[in-house]
Amino acid sequence: MLLLANKYSKEAWFYDQKQIVSYIQKEMTFQEIIEYCLNFDNDLDAAYDFLQDLYKIAKFSSFEDARKNILDWCNRVESSKLKQHELKKTALTYKSWINEIVNSFIIHPKTKARLSNGFIEGKNIFVKVIKRVGFGYKDFDTFRARILYSNDKDIRLKINY
Predict the structure, then answer these.
(1) Mean pLDDT over each residue of the chain, to the nearest integer
(2) Which of 8, 43, 135, 150 has its CA at a distance of 20 to 30 angstroms from the CA of residue 89?
(3) Cβ neighbours of residue 24 under 8 Å, at least 6 residues apart?
(4) Greater confidence, 151 or 91?
């Protein structure tokens, strides 16, 4: 799990925490554990560097330079001599969906946060739960009414239970 940690979102103190590594009977910091693991395999070290570069792009890129940064990353992965083909497949997927990925870097003018479809995905999950809990509805109008009723907070606040 330490190898998947985003070093751009963790504070420096996180990597200074000590942990006893049982298989070598030694106390090491998280940073030392990461370096210890990466020394075993050059491909793992390269893949870790690519992952951290991707985290850096996601954290610090603006909408204007996101496309260039992501495509540069994809080209570096594709031209690398990595034996793992999964990372190269990821680069191809990123290239296929580049417009959608770059759109996630748009900053909302009022909230100053990146745009996300998380709200809509939450609504979709909510509808699926209603469908599952209802064990099927006889007609679409009943199903629609249940969704609208459950979704409207103003109506639920006015009704006294």
Answers:
(1) 83
(2) 8
(3) none
(4) 91
